[in-house]
Amino acid sequence: MAQMGAAGVIITEFEGIRCVRKILASRTEIGFYQQGAKALSGVNTPHLIAVQGRDLLIEYLPERLTLEQVNTCINTFEQLATIHRSDYQPQFELKAHQWPREASERALQTLQLPKRSQQSLRAIQQISAELFESDTLISGDSNHGNWGARHNGQRVLFDWERFGYGSPAIDLAPLVFDLGDISAYQTIVERYLRGGGIGEAESLIRHLIIAKAWLVVEVTNILQARNKPDAERYFNWYRQNLPAWLEQIENHF
């Protein structure tokens, strides 16, 4: 989901401080930086510099991280686990995560997958409610593109417009390269549990598979709705790789 948000982002200066201006930030993200960030002790987030109307000005992070740097670092999972274990109850508007049937149909119309693949994706959607029934706080978008590092090496998670409730697996799914396979899911879940994560491995792997399928639908519909210039590249990749992946994971439900 990285770089697919509706808000515009520019690098600028404010009172002599280099910072990131997020234009027309969501109410969720503004609420997070004003209230939520300080309530999640142990989670590194960009410093809030100012809020100007619907614009957020936050700390600029000099170093972006690769997927490998993010998903092999135990601190990634420690920070996510801290979010998931938190008993903080936000008093601002959160992102309501869901996977309605209509979203699947829009994505399938775009992708034009084989009939068996369409049936598999619809079947996963039908059991997806369990992904969103949790009262666990989640970042909602832990994609490696949303991690940066300060000059002292401290890892920082930004882009909080999808902050809400759901299964911890929603925060694990973006850490798996491409669609992944069962072995990759097991590895990510093991790292998460070593970092203090919550839940049982078997359940987390099941939820991770559902979350991966859901992200395909989410990304497809966002790209289509916002006319992203590289949308067709993503669609073609899904057309080439989704059928085999869906067949591979069928036996795990």
TrEMBL record:
The keyword DNA repair does not apply. Residues 30-197 form the Aminoglycoside phosphotransferase domain. One of its GO terms (molecular function) is kinase activity. It comes from the Bacteria. InterPro entries: Aminoglycoside_PTrfase, Kinase-like_dom_sf. Keywords: Kinase, Transferase. SUPFAM superfamilies: Protein kinase-like (PK-like). The keyword Phosphoprotein does not apply. This is Thiamine kinase.
